Amino acid sequence: QVQLVESGGGLVQPGGSLRLSCAASGFTLRTHTVRWYRQILGEERELVATTTTNGIRSYLDSVKGRFTISRDTAKNTVYLQMNRLKPEDTAVYYCNARGVFNDNNNWGQGTQVTVSS
What we know:
0% of the residues lie in helices and 53% in strands. It is built from no helices and 11 strands.
């Protein structure tokens, strides 16, 4: 069964950290570009971070220097380390994996991140 499962969200105080996980099953992330998006209710989904199959990483300007996207090939998982969190980072975070050699386009179910004191 092809599946992406996010985890690691929660409630954190401003300045705190969280690490989100995006675990794939039924396919390998080695051949997929993986992106983290976030969405606030009523707003459009926003691209936060991207990791390509050849190791290129890119970030939304507002998270540069605070967030880091990484891959663990052995675990078939992509992470989003989020440091120095701000209230404006509050959103549902989604993982997306798009195949480089095929039309695969898989989404996870999302994980809520709330930054509040």
